[in-house]
Amino acid sequence: MSGTPMPCSPGEISSLFLFEKLSPEQLGRLCSEGRVERFQPGPVYTEGDPATCFYVMLEGTVVLSRRVGGDDVEVSRTSQRGVYAGAMQAYLGDQVPQVYNNSMRVTEPTRFFVLPAQSFSDIMREWFPMAAHLLEGLFFGSKNTQRAVGQRERLLALGSLSAGLTHELNNPAAAAVRATATLRERVAKMRHKLAVIASGAYDPEALTRLIEIQERTAELVAKAPALSPLEASDREDALTDWLDDHDVQEGWRIAPTFVQAGLDVDWLEQIADAVDEDVLPSAMGWLNYTVETELLMDEIDDSTNRISHLVDAAKQYSQLDRAPYRVVDVHELLDSTLLMLSGKIGQRIEVVKDYDRTLPQIPAYPAELNQVWTNLVDNAVFAVNSTGGEGTLTVRTAREGDLLLVEFRDTGPGIPADVRGRIFDPFFTTKPVGEGTGLGLDISWRIVVNKHHGSLQVESAPGDTRFQVLLPLTAPGPDSVQEPDTAEEPV
Questions:
Q1: What gap in Å lies between CA 348 and CA 277, rounded to an integer?
Q2: CA distance 491 to 64
Q3: DSSP alpha helices (H): ranges in 223-279?
Q4: Which residues contact 234 (CB under 8 A, 6 or more apart)?
Q5: Does residue 112 surpass a pLDDT of 50?
Q6: The 349-354 sheet, strands edge to edge
Q7: How many C-beta atoms surround the C-beta of residue 150 within 10 A?
Q8: Would you state the pLDDT for residue 404?
Q9: What is the pLDDT of residues 421-478, one digit of tens each?
């Protein structure tokens, strides 16, 4: 949008803090190459357009905003004379994309000193060569530093996740090893029983009935109902009494296995009716081996499935075999992150998933969103642990207009109001020394805002802290996503 040209007075622009030390000749050049323009309320320039001009406000009110989805979110509003915005990186030339990193509008008639980007670049390099070199070094040095500390933060998170994943994998792996060793012992005993049977100790008809009972018992194991501790204890007592009454040795040891398999007194009565009384103790022993074998195989199956599930979650979390930018279901990302962090979350923190499964998939960088979820969950767990370790972490998804909301809510002590405005600043942390780098939220903010054109905000009160991530349902392709490296507020 073009404004109304107005006379440029060297005396007026010399009153601005940017130009107060310039010589009359320099002020004259500014006025000859630049211009003063008056803008009526409305837009001045738009985010993403080629950065053609450098603006310095003489009088009025300016508002800067960033595009989030289909909305413009205000990030700054000021009436201070001398604030500047626009092509502030012109002196870097082709080393960075020369586009506006925000949108600017005015809310009342406003005058600007407007300098073309090329003139601004030439003047910076001619008048302040040392400063231009220092600023260039600072710009790229800061960018490299941010990349390095970001990588360091990711490595720290990876180390924590690796420790948690190792712990989670060790439990089912150890269970499978124990079950395999016990299963080998039970199979050996069954071979011994088979040798007894082969010696002719059992009547063929009784043996047929026993094998039939064995098959039906094995089927029952797979359908065993879940019992409460009190129900299981009562059934164990009843089975122990029945086994003792029928002269079955070590009934107290067999009964818990039968209960776990879903067997009851009625089932034992059916077995007693099917075999002779003198064969019953051996039949019970044989069935006990059958039940134990089935239960052990179920345990091995559960353990190996658990390991496979964890490996799949790790694969989903790391996105090793996926394109860096693709359409994703945020619920899959959230579930994989929560599973990867389950060891850190622990048993005392209840995790509630309040998902809106009707939400569509969105274009995103999934591996980097997982980094955001990791940082926010880690902070929530730390907050809850600081109040005794018991609480609730609620992960909620919802649709808000053309944005997708992912909210992490914890029941921790909350964030004090006097530091709430600084929590996204690099290296600022409320954690004790050695427990936080102050980079997690800064990295999360950059991933959400700069890379996904979304927003990250926080609402906090004692017992109710909510970090809200808003992501566009549609987004530009990866080649058009630029990461701003300058402040979005007029300086």
A1: 51
A2: 11
A3: 229-245, 251-260, 265-274
A4: none
A5: yes
A6: 349-354, 391-400, 403-410, 464-472, 455-461
A7: 17
A8: 93
A9: 777 766 556 655 445 444 568 778 888 888 888 888 889 888 899 999 999 988 654 5
